[in-house]
Design goal:
It contains 5 helices and no strands. By secondary structure, it is mainly alpha-helical. It has one domain: lambda repressor-like DNA-binding domains (434 Repressor (Amino-terminal Domain)), CATH 1.10.260.
């Protein structure tokens, strides 16, 4: 018997957008380029660009590698920042 597929709950702000925003913020705070971040995280530079543009899903391993390279806890990369909360309310 097939298992019915439940509808996904509507996300106010997709996690891809939150991750992209947080990566850019923490990368700017460190003062490093996408290329430098990719080297520190051990992933391809194009992958960093795709993640920062919200066009790529990430694995937990990639999330951990990025967090380590950005010197933050992985959960910090998925926290909805106040700036995006305000943007969401105005829409």
């Amino acid at each position: 018997m097939p298992i019915p597929k439940l509808p996904k709950p509507a996300q106010a702000v997709p996690l891809k957008v939150v991750l992209a925003y947080q990566m850019k913020k923490y990368r700017a705070k460190l003062g490093c380029s996408q290329e430098e971040l990719s080297y520190l995280a051990g992933i391809h530079r194009a992958a960093v660009g795709h993640i920062e543009n919200g066009r790529r899903n990430v694995t937990l391993e990639t999330l951990e590698a990025l967090a380590g390279a950005l010197q933050v806890a992985p959960n910090k990369l998925l926290e909805l920042p106040a700036e995006l909360k305000q943007q969401q309310k105005s829409e």
